[in-house]
């Protein structure tokens, strides 16, 4: 008689380990192998994407210059009311700080930072540092000696600037990127109208990006629809022509457009030869040329997502709607178009995001009135070496990109729910 099998006896593997335990070990091993396979990509993204973004966000509020050079002065200014001149002890602290900074050759760092907020502060601080240590006359305090050296040390506004920079973090760069400044009451306020620049630059960037996106959609959607309805062999052949610009550098394409659009270029030459115009058209080094070149460069980014969505829509949907008595245009608008919104929106979002960060095309083919935010990021990075302003402008562009992506997610999600 065979042994009866107990239902309470745990199943074991060949080596006597419970089967449940062995399955858990194998599952953990597979998870570990998957993690090791993904780890190089995760490290790559961390080092090339997340760390630079974190550095960018940090530099936009980083403010180490004044607090590191004028350590004692900023500490002594903390209890100051900000209305009357600081106490003599603050001037004594400034004298010691400048004497130390002159020896360490760090005065220009603080002078450059303070000069951003108050013009003339660079010369004032460097002039004072060269005269340190001051020798007050009989009966004079250190404060009197500073004011005798330069009357600006008796101006409360200069001390307010030093006090505002008494922290390692500052909203100055972000506020300046939005044409704001800290008022006398400590609240943000718009700078005078003749000093405003960045709001108009951001507005110009968004406006130009909007119109480039509109033109890309107007040209790309019909072309994608045409490619999707052609036989496979012909559509593949024409798709090569769409992808062909990717094989050429953007710089080369912009240079080609300069040759084509300039006053003595091929386009104006052809128009004059045909008698369409009597004088060359201004097509280069203005907004028209920038629009033409950017639409040409970014058009494939609308065509490809739209084509991939359109190709997946069965043609029988349209034929069924028309056979049931619907007009072809009405059938297209009610049946076909809603199914293409996701791909078209993805292409439009991609084009718009690329536009707001574009640099080469406006810089080479546009005038100063066509320069976008990215131009000024490069300017502050390469020319004035103002990393704070460059990081602040870049952070605002990043914020705009995230907002656009969030808007896209909401719109596409709502569209999918309505179609469902």
From TrEMBL:
CDD domains: TM_PBP2. InterPro entries: MetI-like (IPR000515), MetI-like_sf (IPR035906). One of its GO terms (cellular component) is plasma membrane. The chain crosses the membrane at residues 34-57, 206-228, 240-260, 290-310, 341-365, 385-408. The keyword Nucleotide-binding does not apply. Gene3D superfamilies: MetI-like. This is ABC transporter permease subunit. It comes from Craterilacuibacter sinensis. The lineage of its organism: Bacteria, Pseudomonadati, Pseudomonadota, Betaproteobacteria, Neisseriales.
